[in-house]
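In the design runs reported in the main text, the only information available to the sequence generator was the tokenized backbone. The following block is the verbatim input for one such run; it is reproduced so that readers can re-run the procedure and compare outputs position by position.
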């Protein structure tokens, strides 16, 4: 059961579409949006997300360097990366 979905995107249109999809698919889930992967990295322990969706070209600066650490901290939960 997915209780929390973390969406990382600094693009409002992408965030809105992903929020809509997440709430349709996981109606009981809490959906949280962060605009940068670096700030989302610090929230993993607090939010304990069951799923993360990252818009790669809209997740803030330093995304390529931060992505491996983010995926490692999310394990074993899925991380979807969109480009």
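Verbatim output:
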């Amino acid at each position: 059961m997915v209780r929390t979905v973390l969406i990382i995107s600094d693009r409002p249109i992408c965030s809105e579409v992903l929020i809509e999809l997440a709430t349709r698919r996981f109606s009981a889930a809490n959906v949280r949006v962060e605009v940068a992967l670096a700030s989302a990295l610090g929230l993993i322990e607090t939010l304990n997300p069951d799923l993360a969706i990252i818009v790669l070209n809209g997740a803030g600066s330093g995304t390529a360097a931060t992505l491996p650490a983010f995926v490692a901290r999310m394990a074993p939960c899925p991380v979807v990366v969109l480009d």
